[in-house]
Amino acid sequence: MSQQPISLMEMPEWQALQQHFSEIQNKHMRDMFAEDDSRFDQFSVELNEILFDYSKNRITKETIGLLVELAHACELPQQIDAMFDAKKINATEGRAVLHTALRNQTDQPLVLDGEDVHHQVRTEIERAYQLAEQVRNGDWLGYTNKPITDIVNIGIGGSYLGPQMVTEALSPFVKPTLNFHFVANLDENQIDDVLAPLDPETTLFIVCSKTFTTQETMFNANTARNWFLSLVNDKSKLSKHFVAVSTNIEAAKSFGINDQNIFSMWDWVGGRYSMWSAIGLSIMIAIGKQQFEQLLKGASEVDQHFRSAELANNIPALMGLLGVWYNNFFDAQAIAVLPYSQHLHRFPAYLQQADMESNGKSVALSGKRINYSSGPVLFGELGNPGQHAFYQLLHQGTKLIPIDVIATARNISGDNKHQDALMSNVFAQTEALMKGKNEQEVRQELESGSLNQEAIDNLVPHKIFEGNRPSNTLLLQALTPSNLGSLIALYEHKIFTQGIIWKINSFDQWGVELGKQLAQSILKDLSADGNASSSSDSDSESNNSSNRDSSTTGLMSHYINQRN
Ligand code: F6P
Hints:
Strand content: 5-15%
Shape: globular
Oligomer: single chain
Mean pLDDT: 96
Number of helices: 21
Distance between the termini: 66 Å
Low-confidence stretches: 534-538
Radius of gyration: 26 Å
Bound molecules: 6-O-phosphono-beta-D-fructofuranose
Largest sheet: 6 strands, mixed
Helix content: 40-55%
């Protein structure tokens, strides 16, 4: 007789954590640090040029031991092997999950459905490198034999956020004679603004879409094509100015892109994990083959670490488990990712997709609804601007929001004249969040000033900081391609770790489908005769316009009236 899998919260390892939580939930980190001056040594791990300090968390040695036991009970090490070994762990789509193969540095074959994945990856990436080097060297010429100056990446989600984030993060490594533009929005203002100053003779469009069916990307690609043809008036010239990256080669061809200008990817690369493939073509053009290889190398080193390090010393596993600790035991609803490095300004946006599209699920792999909390709300912003905007809530609000701070010891593009001031803010913020300021300290401070007793009494409660607010600090030596590759891979595997604990599929995204279906049906009605309530025969039951609610029909009618 087959046994029902035991639910997460009934596992003895979970219950042991619950018991431990009740014992330490009120313990203040201030006291933990005072009692044990080896916390930093105990709770930090170094991997190459990255230091991960997790000592400012509401944990003891026992907490980590219990979290690691939970991870073992959830078979995290076996699941890591299953991912790397090309098992079809994306069960709802029947796919392997092999972004790690995109950066594998070994010659060992990896066979999936009879094909050597590593061979496929190397072949395709070499083709992409060739194009990238031609553009960089000025050997790829436009239709009037001028070199390319502007690269426009058209794509959305994973076909946009990763390439844009990395191109910005590595701006000191970007070839200065080239300009990069990223178009994702369906609002035509974006593409119009990008196209306005461009010259079709020197512009290269990269249409990035795994499926080559995504509405936003197809609209923007068509607009770009029409813009080009309106100025050049000759379809035969398109081939020098449009390339594509997709699994859907036929659709890219029907769009009018030449065979040799289409780069493939595979269904075993999730969109949000795809910047390591030819989807990263704009990155390759920006930083060149050598630096792109460094990016891959940095990620691959983290892959090896994730696969081989003991869980108690395994950075992505620890990041994931600490997230579970706050999410499920402290009931924290959100996390903040706060880079202090300007060039990482798109990192929170990138991570929002990586994390929230992966772990924003409420059904377990078993098909049953889960009765515990899964992925948190992730938000973030550059550190200093954030300090003067929303950090108030982090310090004194009623919500517990664990944070990740990311900083670099060295600024490779400047002369480091701001660096000590910048880093003093990094260290001060996490110290303030951890320690807080108690009543006695507030009183002492106020009493040394000129306020009378009544004014002091009134002010004291407002100036108290409870503290005990957790943070991780990721301190990179510098923002190099290799360290950035490592940083991204750390987060990818953190997300994987949490998906395993929560027993969900981190690699599908059915939640984005309903809105897409409804938009299709609504667009049909908007473009028909302007009658928002007309029903269309071909609509499926759930999309049928006659099923629309009064709010949607009302809004549509109002729009149609305003539009006309
Ligand atoms: O709608 C969500 C999504 O499917 C993402 O997962 C993906 O990264 C994005 O859309 C873009 O998809 P595509 O690369 O197929 O255009």
